[in-house]
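User: Hey, my collaborator sent me this sequence without any context and asked if I could get a structure. I don't really work with proteins. Can you help?
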Amino acid sequence: MNTETHAAMRACIRALSDELRARSASDRALEAFVTGIAEAEAGSDIHPGRSAPDHPAFPSLERALANVPAGWNLGDAVVSAAPRLDWFQVFNSDEIDPRLGRNMISAQLALRRDAGGARTVHAGLFLVGSDTDYPLHTHTAPEVYYCVSGRLTLQHGVEGQPFFLHPGEYSITPSERLHSLKTEDEPVLLVYIWLTGPHLENWWWSQEPDGSWARSQWTWRSDGRWVRLGSEPVDSDAMRRACGVGHR
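Assistant: No problem. I've predicted the 3D structure and written it out in structure-token form, which is a compact way to encode the shape of the chain:
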């Protein structure tokens, strides 16, 4: 990684940290993410990922960058850094809808490890191409999405009210909260933060023909692939927890 790329990545992290710190005064749920980003910036284990320069989502990335509002520190930092980064396909599996593989790419900005080597903070850029429906899923890591370009529709829970993110707006998804993402006719560019443990896992939920629910477990490998481990039925208690019923 050259010096200019490294500086551009750190500029994104600093701008994101400034945004979150300013907003945490009125939203204490952001405090853990502010701390996480500060630790990642101080002790970063930044690496470029695995480049996919011919990926079909790159024209969408160019569109998204052209739509980032000007004169905004975080937006300007992202526009400067994004073309320098190594982007990789988020989902690369024959068992996943090929459209998700074509439409979703990511680039890492910061990675913090604890003393034992386990990942504790992930931060990066996430592009979701137009007309993409990322179905209901959960993960143990609490997550922040900070919108930089486009309009993202999110839904928490099976029957939750959809809400929107526009540039300069953020969402917080608690650990194990069921949620889905959707884009319309424009691509969406996000900065993300995950506060995680030693394993990156993702559960995809689906409703069976008889009305019951099941979930499939996926885990991230160091070669950049998500691998399906198996599936299991979802009972009513697990569904209530995933939908945040009885929890704040």
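In plain terms: The first strand starts at residue 88 and ends at 89. You can pass these tokens on to your collaborator as they are.
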